[in-house]
Amino acid sequence: MPDDLPNSRPHVRYFRLIEAAQALAPVRTAVAYPCDEVSLAGAVEAARLRLIEPILVGPADRLRKVAGDAKLDIDRFEVVDATDAHDAATKAVALVSDGRAEALMKGSLHTDELMGAAVRREAGLRTDRRISHCFILDVPGHSTPLVITDAAVNIAPTLSDKADITQNAIDLAAAMHVTDVRVAILSAMETINPDVSSTIEAAALCKMADRGQITGAAVDGPLALDNAISPEAAALKGIVSPVAGRANVLVAPNLEAGNMLAKSLSFLAGGDAAGVVLGARVPIMLTSRADSLTTRLASCAVASHIADFARRGRANREH
Predict the structure, then answer these.
(1) What is the pLDDT of residues 38-60, one digit of tens each?
(2) Do 26 and 53 meet the contact criterion of CB atoms below 8 Å apart?
(3) Is residue 12 very low, low, confident or very high in pLDDT (cuts 50, 70, 90)?
């Protein structure tokens, strides 16, 4: 990885993630409306590093002007002309539906425009699983990356939603080659309180994991944030479990809690937060204008691992 990435922080784990993804086949990605320098430059750099093979979807004249102003070479990429952001989102989703793309990437349009197109039943991207978002955070001083869900899609998830949100995060960790997935179902406390619904739902999710309704990880909760990620805090509270103090997946009780947790780690603790939407037929990269280039590339790397995991799963089923 180059040392002079604009606005990047030297997070070794992200660089290793990107380098690992470079060993995989580039992911054919429909990039919806990359009509500003930040989003277009991210797609171009991801292509240069062979993380993605972009199809740029947006007003062709505007894309070329942005590229010219920013001195970006997009001549080698396929461009699908679109009239506006809404049309770009629809056409980007259609590329996936038609089997021409393995991933979606948000450009400079609003998140709800892209997700609105992606979740329409007729688009064919939905599965039986609830769609949810995961942040993959590299936090300085913390020994392992953290997956936080859901902080961007599901506002007030039901118990059924949380089961899917949890399974999506576990599957993401598996795609990222995490061999010991430890899921903490977060609340404000580690004891079950009938007046705090998130503690009741946490207990139910743990029992669902016990009965095989959620698979692939150790699941414990309710856990407060401190005793989920700090062995010392867990020991002080006398909590003995394979998850307490060692969680690498954090399931928030609702969107507000998850979003504030992720942004606190980003803006107060200096963490980088790659993001991806799961539960659809393909990974969806929801990048923000505030994201560093390193974070954008890490999101592409995560999507690359997910796409490769899906390819390997298909190959195994066919044999």
Answers:
(1) 999 999 999 999 999 999 999 99
(2) yes
(3) confident
Mutual angle of helices 293-318 and 12-22, in 10-degree steps: 40
List Cβ neighbours of 132 (8 Å cut-off, separation of 6 or more).
149, 150, 153, 154, 157, 161, 164, 165, 168, 169, 277, 278, 279
Tell me if domain 8-126+280-319 and domain 130-278 are identical in fold: no
Distance CA 315, CA 224 (A): 40
- Specify the 3-state DSSP secondary structure of 143: coil
pLDDT band at 140; cut points 50, 70, 90: confident
Q: Which residue has the tokens 């990605």?
A: 29
Put simply, whether the predicted model's pTM sits higher than 0.85 gets the answer yes
Q: Which residue has the higher pLDDT, 125 or 81?
A: 81
Half-sphere exposure of 4 (CA within 13 A, CB side): 0
- Span 140-165, mean pLDDT? 94
Domain locations in the chain? 8-126+280-319, 130-278
Q: Give 8-126+280-319's CATH code, choosing from 3.40.50.2300, 3.30.565.10, 2.130.10.10, 3.40.50.10950.
A: 3.40.50.10950
Total Cβ atoms within 10 A of residue 237: 18
Does the pLDDT value for residue 292 go beyond 70?
yes
The CATH fold of domain 130-278: Isopropylmalate Dehydrogenase (3.40.718)
The overall longest dimension of the chain from CA atoms, in Å, is 63
